[in-house]
Design goal:
The structure is a homotetramer. By secondary structure, chain A is an alpha/beta fold. Helices cover 51% and strands 12% of the residues of chain A. In chain A, α3 links the parallel β3 and β4. Chain A starts with a strand and ends in a 6-residue tail after the last helix. The relative contact order of chain A is 0.09. Chains in contact: A-B, A-C, A-D, B-C, B-D, C-D. At the B-C interface, α7, α9, α11 and α12 of B face α7, α9, α11 and α12 of C.
C-alpha cells in the first residue's frame, strides 16, 4: 500500500527501506532535503492517494506534537496518522482526541528493534481503533519479524506506547541485572575468564536472552570493557514507567533502581553523598575528602 | 566413563539418566533404597574403578558437607569429588582444601537447567584444578547442551558455584523486572489482552529471553495468574549474592530489590509497616488499621 | 490582623484557634455550617477589611483549585490568597499566575506540625513574592513555633510547597529507616526488651529525633504494636517527591524505597510476585501456593 | 570504681577522661607509650584490684580479638572484660563463650556519641549476664548522658553490639534521606536559600533531629558543601546490618540503598554502568563515552 513516512533518520529511514523491500510505496519526508522525497508535509499529503496513511517517526515531544498538529490541518477525514516514535502515552491520548475531532484516525505504535530491525523486523505494539489498525495491517505485517510474534494490538489509543514504555522499563531492569552480575564477578577476583563465563551462559541457563547475546558480543569486542565509560543515558521511557507506577501505586523497586543507577552514572560528584560525608564529619570527626 | 552419583532426586536422577543415555556407567546412591543402586557410600566407592569420580547432588549445607566428609574417608588419592549442588562457594573452598590434604581432587559445578535439563542439557559452571576438570570432561560434555555454549571452567575451586550464584542473582533481577512490568500493565487498565502482549514480545524486542518464553507459557495456562499466590521462596543463592556484594563493596540495587521483594512476599503483615502506621498515627492522627 | 480561613477541619480549625489566641481576628468558612462563621465565600470576603488575606486550608487538588478560582472572582487587586494545604507546587504556579493576572497576590505555604501544632506551633515553608510574604508576617509569626526556627521564605510561588514536599519525602525515608531497624531487632530474637531499646536511644545517639520520640510513645502504648496492621497510606507528597526527582534526574533510592514499601503494604497479594512464583514453577518445578 | 581501659585513641581517651571526671580510677593502656599508664596488658592487670574490670576500646576484628584473647590469659575468674568497640555481635558470642569457659565475664557495649560524647555522655547498648552488667553499672552511669535515657541492657552477650549495629543501620537510612532531600532541593532551582530552608526545619517539623542539627551546622560552615567531595566511607555496621537482615529474611530496602549509595560514591567509574552503556550501544547504536 501507499504510506507517507515523516522522519528519515536511523529508525525512520530503515523502516522506509524495509517497507519498500516489502512492496509498499513510501513517500518520505525529512527536514534534511538530501533524504527527502518531497519538499514538505503538504506535498507529502498531496502525493498520497486517499484514504491516506502517514507514519510519523520523530523524536518524542515537541517535534512529534508539531507534526501531528500540522498533519491534522492537512489531512482529510478517513486518513490515519501513525506515531511510531517514542511518545508518551498521554501525548497519544491528546493527539488521538484532537485528530478524532476532525475524523482523522490515530494509531500509536511502539517500535522495538533498534539497528537490527531492518533485517530482523521490528516488534510493534499498537494502540488505536480496530478499524484503523485493520487498515494498516499490511504495513505492520511487513515491518514486524517473520512468524507469529512481534505484533500486538494492545488496546485503545495510547496502549501501544504504554506497552512499549513498560517493555523498556523491563529492559532497564534486565540490563542492570546483567550489569550488577558482571561487576560482582569482576570484583570477586575468583573468575579467570569473565567473557568466557558470560559466553557459556548462552545455552542451558535460565538467563539466556538476547541481551546476554549482546553482552557477549560487547565482551568479545572489548573483554574488560576498558574502552567504555560507565555513563548511561536514558531515553524517557524508563522515567515514564516510574512515573506511571507512582500514579498507579505500583511498587517498581527493580526498574526504579535501574533508572536511578543511570542518573547516578552521569554525576561527577553526588550532592547527596556530600551531605553524607559532611554529616559523618560532624558527628564522628571522620575526615572528608575535598 | 564410570561415575558415582550421590543423590537421585529430581536433579540427580535426571542427570544420571542423561549420563546413561550418553553412554556412561553411573552407579547411583540415594538414601531412598527404591532409587539406589547400592546400599551406601562404601559400596558405591567399591563399585567404581580407580581413579574414581563421585558426583554429589544433594541439598547445600549439612547434607552435602557430611557426604563430602564421608567420601574423604572412603576415597583414595587420585579420586575426584564433584559437588553439583547449590553449595556456597565458601563451603567449596573448605571442602577442596580438606580433600586436597588427602590427595583427593574436588570440583564445584554449578548446574542450571531445572526440569528442562534432561532433554536440553544442563549449563555447567565449573571450578577446580585444570587436571581434575580435564579428567571429567567426558561427563561435562554429556551433561551440557549440544553446541559451543553451556560450559565454563571459571577458575579455581569455588569459582563454579560463585558464578552459578551470580547467575541466579541475575535471574532474580530479570524475573522481578518482568514481574514489575506485568503488574504495571495489569494495573493500568489500558491493555485489553495482557497475555497476548507478552506473547508478542517473543520476537523483535530487546527483552526476548527464555524467561519471557516461560512467562508466556504460564500466562497461556492461567491468563490472569489467578491460581497462583504472590508468594516466592528463595533458594539461598540470591542471599549469598547480596552477601558477597556487601563483602566486596559492590552495589547491587536491582538484585537486592528482587531478593527483598521475595522476603516481603512471604510476610502476612510487615512489622516495619506497623511502625510506619504507628508513626503516622502519632504525628498526624492518621487512623491505623487493626 | 484580620484573616479569612477557608476549611475548618482538623488542621484549619486548630490553626484558626492558634491565630485567635495570638490576637488575630479570624473569619472562618467551612461547608459544615456548624463550624462556619459565614454562609459562603462571598460573605467571608465581605467581612474582611481590604486589603484582604484569605488562607485556604483544604484538601489538595480539586477542592483547593475550585476555592482559589472562586476567590479569584471575589477578591480585589491587592488582596492575597494563601494556600496552606498540601498542594502540588505545579498547582501553585498555575494559581499564582491566574491570580497575578487580576492583581491578587498568592502565597503557597507548606505546613508541618500535625495534631501537635496547636500547642507547639506549625513549621511554615513559604513561597511567594517578598511584598506578600512581608504583609502576612504577623500571621506567620503567630502560627510558627516560638524561637528562631520553623519559618522559611523559600522562594517564589511554588517554592513553599516544593520544600514541604521534600520535607515529607525525607520524613518517609526516616520513618522507614526506623521501621526496618525495628523489624530486624524484633526478628533477631536477641533483644529481650525492644521498647526499652528504642527508649534508651532518646539521648546520646546519632538517631535521636522527634520521630524516635514518637516511636517510643507508640511502643509505650502497645509494646509489640500488636494492635496495628502493617498498612500505610501515603498522602501525595511522597509520590510527588519521586516524580520531581525523576523530572530532575536525581536518584532518590531511599525515599523511593520508602514510598514503595507503603504501596506494597496495601496489597493483599502482589501481582508481581505471582509472576515470580509462576516463573519459578515453570523453570524449576517449584510448587506454587494458591 | 577501678577500671582498665585498653585503647586510648579518640574514643577511648575521651571515655577514660569522662570516667576520671566522674570519680573513677582508670588505668589506661595504649600501644603508644606517650598515652599509656602502663607498659602492657600484664602491668594493667596487676595494677587493678580484683575482681577486675577491663574495657577494650580498639578497632573491631583482629585488634580486639587478640586483646580479648590476651586478657583471657591474664585475668582471673570473677573478672569482667567489656568490649566497647564496634565489634560484630558474632565475635562477641565467640569471645563471651571463650572467657566464660575460664570463669571470666564478658560484656559487649555498643557506644554512640562520637566526638560529642565527652561532654554530653555516650549512649550505651549493653549485652551480657545480669550479674556482670550490674557490677559495671557505676561505670555505665558515668559514661551515659544525664537523665533517664542513653543506656539499655538489651540482652545476652552480643545483644549490645547487635542493637548498636542496627542503630547505625537506621542512621545510614536517615542520613541518606536528608542527603536525597538536599540534592533534590538543590537541583530544583526553586529554592533561593537552601541552608536557611534546612535551618528552619529545626522546630515544628516531623524531621527535626540531631542529624538535622548537624546538617545545619555543616551548611553554616560551607553553604554549598563546596569543600566536600561526595565520597562516603562505611565503618562495617551498615554492612553487618544488611547481612543480618539477609540471614533473617527481613527486607531492608532503605538501609541497603543507603549502604549501596556509599559503595557507589567510592567508585570513579562503575563497571556495572559500563555494561549498561555497552548494551545500549549494541542494540540501539547509542554512542558510548570512553
Amino acid at each position: 500500500m501507499h504510506i507517507g513516512m515523516v522522519g528519515l533518520g536511523r529508525m525512520g529511514g530503515n523502516m522506509a527501506e524495509r517497507l519498500r523491500r516489502g512492496g509498499h510505496t513510501v513517500v518520505g519526508y525529512d527536514r534534511d532535503p538530501s533524504l527527502s522525497d518531497v519538499s514538505g508535509l503538504q506535498e507529502l499529503v498531496e502525493r498520497l492517494p486517499a484514504p491516506r496513511a502517514v507514519w510519523v517517526m520523530l523524536p518524542a515531544g515537541e517535534p512529534t506534537r508539531q507534526t501531528v498538529h500540522s498533519l491534522g490541518e492537512l489531512l482529510e477525514p478517513g486518513d490515519v496518522v501513525i506515531d511510531g516514535g517514542n511518545s508518551n502515552y498521554r501525548d497519544d491520548q491528546e493527539h488521538g482526541a484532537r485528530l478524532a475531532a476532525k475524523g482523522i484516525g490515530f494509531i500509536d505504535c511502539g517500535v522495538s528493534g533498534g539497528v537490527w530491525g531492518l533485517e530482523n523486523g521490528y516488534a510493534l505494539m499498537v494502540g488505536g481503533e480496530e478499524e484503523h489498525v485493520r487498515r494498516l495491517m499490511p504495513i505492520f505485517e511487513t515491518l514486524k519479524p517473520a512468524g507469529e510474534y512481534g505484533f500486538v494490538h494492545a488496546g485503545k489509543v495510547g496502549a501501544g506506547h504504554f506497552v512499549k514504555m513498560v517493555h523498556n522499563g523491563i529492559e532497564y531492569g534486565m540490563m542492570q541485572a546483567f550489569a550488577e552480575g558482571y561487576e560482582l564477578i569482576a570484583a570477586s577476583g575468583l573468575v579467570k575468564d569473565v567473557p568466557e563465563t558470560f559466553r557459556s551462559w548462552k545455552e542451558g541457563t535460565v538467563i539466556r536472552s538476547w541481551l546476554l547475546d549482546l553482552l557477549v558480543r560487547a565482551l568479545e569486542d572489548d573483554p574488560g570493557l576498558e574502552g567504555i565509560r560507565g555513563y548511561a543515558q536514558d531515553s524517557g521511557e524508563g522515567r515514564w514507567t516510574v512515573q506511571a507506577a507512582v500514579d498507579h501505586a505500583v511498587p517498581l523497586p527493580v526498574i526504579t533502581a535501574a533508572l536511578y543507577a543511570r542518573f547516578a552514572s552521569r554525576q561527577d560528584d553526588s550532592p547527596a553523598m556530600r551531605v553524607v560525608a559532611a554529616l559523618r564529619n560532624q558527628f564522628g570527626g571522620h575526615a572528608v575528602e575535598s
